Amino acid sequence: MTKKYVTYAMMTALTLAISMWVIIPIPGSNGFVSLIDAGIFTSALLFGPAGGFFVGALSGGLIDVISGYFQWTLFSFIIHGAQGWMAGKFSNQPIWGRITGLIFASVIMVLGYFLASWFMYGLPVALAAIPGDLIQTLVGAVIALPLSQILRSILPPRILNS
Fold first, then answer.
1. Using CB atoms within 10 A as the burial measure, which of 5, 67, 91, 128 is most buried?
2. Where is the chain membrane-spanning (predicted)?
3. What is the CATH number of the domain that holds 71?
4. How crowded is residue 98: how many other Cβ atoms within 10 Å of its Cβ?
5. Residue 108: what are its φ and ψ, rounded to 5°?
6. Which among 71, 87, 78, 83 is positioned nearest to 125, based on CA atoms?
């Protein structure tokens, strides 16, 4: 049990590190695009729904705190947690099943941030943020699919989907 949580914590730290490395502010929405989805999707595909939720929620919330986007923290915790959980639900499927899970998880993320943006800043800002969110989640999926496959082949089975 401890190894599982230590692994999730390390993946959260790694996801935060890659997310902080690339932060592209989105003018007008008081938000940004990062590589967070790559870390969340990789964790979800390797460790299933629990790992996806843990890494998604913590890295999503923490990046906002660290980056100074405090108003997004609760939304990011919920949205990225749900995104990771959904992607993880499909982690043991063949490739097309994993792709389907990433699509569903991406819809959760884009729709979640659309609704949060609409609530906080209004419809025009929410609509303007959609392209950035789509790019972020697409890049995350394109990175995570092959990376998780490579890691799955070299990591010990006892830590995968535990």
1. 91
2. 6-26, 38-63, 69-87, 99-121, 127-148
3. 1.10.1760.20
4. 22
5. -60, -45
6. 71
Give how far Cα 24 sits from Cα of 43, 73, 101, Å: 23, 17, 26
Q: Domain range spanning residue 127?
A: 2-23+30-159
- 23: tokens are 């932060």
Show Cβ contacts of residue 94 under 8 Å, excluding neighbours closer than 6 positions. none
Q: Strand ranges (DSSP E) for the chain?
A: 23-26, 31-34
- The total number of structural domains in the chain stands at 1
- Global pTM reads 0.92
**Tokens 């049990």 label which residue?**
1
> CA-to-CA distance for 2 and 139, rounded, in angstroms?
31
